[in-house]
Amino acid sequence: MTSLAATPETDSPRARLILRFGRIGLALAAGAAAALAHPPFGVLPGLLGYALLMFLSERSTSVRGGFWMGWLAGFAYFFISCWWVAEAFLVNPAQAWMAPFAASALPAGLGLFWGTATALYRRFLPSGMKRVLFFAALFCLLEWLRGHVLTGFPWNPAGASWKAGSAASQFASIAGVYGLGFVTVAASAAFGPLLGEGARKARIVTAALGALALAVLVISGAMRLSSARLELTPTLVRIVQADVPQASKWTPEAYQGIVDRYVNLTARPGAATPDLIIWPEGALPATANEVFAQGSPDAAAIARAVQPGQSLIIGLGRGVADPSVPEGGRYFNSLFVLTDEGGDGLRIATVYDKYRLVPFGEFLPAGGLMGALGVRALTHMPLDFSPGPRPAPVDIPGAPRAQPLICYESLYPGFTPGSTGRPGWIVNISNDAWFGRTSGPLQHLNLASYRAIETGLPVVRATPTGTSAMIDPWGRVVDGQRLDAGESGVIDARLPQPTGVTLYGRIGDLLFWLAVVAGLLVAAPWRRVIRSKTVVP
User: Fold this and answer.
1) Tens digits of per-residue pLDDT, 414-465?
2) Domain count along the chain
3) Is 533 a known active-site residue?
4) pTM for this prediction
5) Cα separation of 163 and 169, whole Å?
6) Looking at 58, 143, 354, 362, which residue is catalytic?
């Protein structure tokens, strides 16, 4: 393959301008196509955006040019994937002016990871068709870093392009979502050489191998699903979705109505009495300190709705006195397990404090500096949440041992023990009401469902406005056990049995790292590659 050197046809200012804007447009198209492969869009041919991105990186005349191709593609990808963050700023009219800045700043920052990957690829470009593996290794390494640097933001990794529960998604039970991403990017990028020059036979063989890899993903996953047998435990769970929009939560007039909605849905008669009732994160616009205060009418109303022997999971913020901090206390985003043992009121059986907090949503990074610059005042965050300990399973009366994950935590692989200490299920409470009827809550459902595939555990998901669902251990929403945006009601469902321990549950990301290392080694001999200014295959 040759680089785009100057020719009489491309050396005029007009031709150079057309060529430059053509490259920009193609880079943006590559990122947009890859983003549209993700649910809820599901345009899977968009995976060829990775092939186009690899081709554009190779045709860049410099490492800097390679970086800009990746950054532009990344900007388009994350703009489409994450535009819904702007919706949260529209909830409070005083913050609405920040919405366009949030929608553009986030993809601009995340695009740096893609730009770094393509710049490194352009710098150390190996010869021959093996460069496909090298591209996939670099790209997926930077994707892993995106999910971990500064607590990470693992939204829509490449592996999650496949709808959770689909045949191809089942490979996550072997190599996790990052391992699935490596196969997805490598197989898709294998079509890139068809756009270039070189031995025709080698280019066709490379594309054929990519097609074969995609076919193996689908066929092997279909075989796994064909043997899947959904078995249910005796535990009956009620998921409560009260359909409370975020913008209407914070007026005194609305408060009592919200309490009544949750209480009435909790007490609604059903075919059988639930063992466990689940309310979402931020169910009530009040702190646990207020709801559970001595003599609180809210606590009394909740207790009347919960029958003896039942347990209730509810997400609320809570404050804890702590003289060691300047503010005099700490604030946690917490999950409470309450149980009615037949006495007076409810007893708090378990408290889980959220570990992985949302930057700029639940805490302000470099808070002292940001406060001095006036950012805290702009974000209307007078006090940060404090993180709890690393997630660990908890005991729940009347139900199997569970792994709690609050909202954003469900994006992260590895928080749930997959073998030793493995719980019986995952409970994910979330407040997706911040993002309305956008693609964000639907993608959040897809991402959380990958934790089921990786661990072989069912996931029970509760949100205020959708999407709430019972998810089986293969990442599929159980038929009829889903409430979407704008729906109010309950889901009464038996908790599914886990599958056997998955390979990913035993070894974690080991296969992913082996693939990345192998992909990087195809650039050997490293001394020759590093010394060369440009490697032209």
Assistant:
1) 999 999 999 999 999 999 998 989 999 999 999 999 999 999 999 999 999 9
2) 3
3) no
4) 0.93
5) 7
6) 354
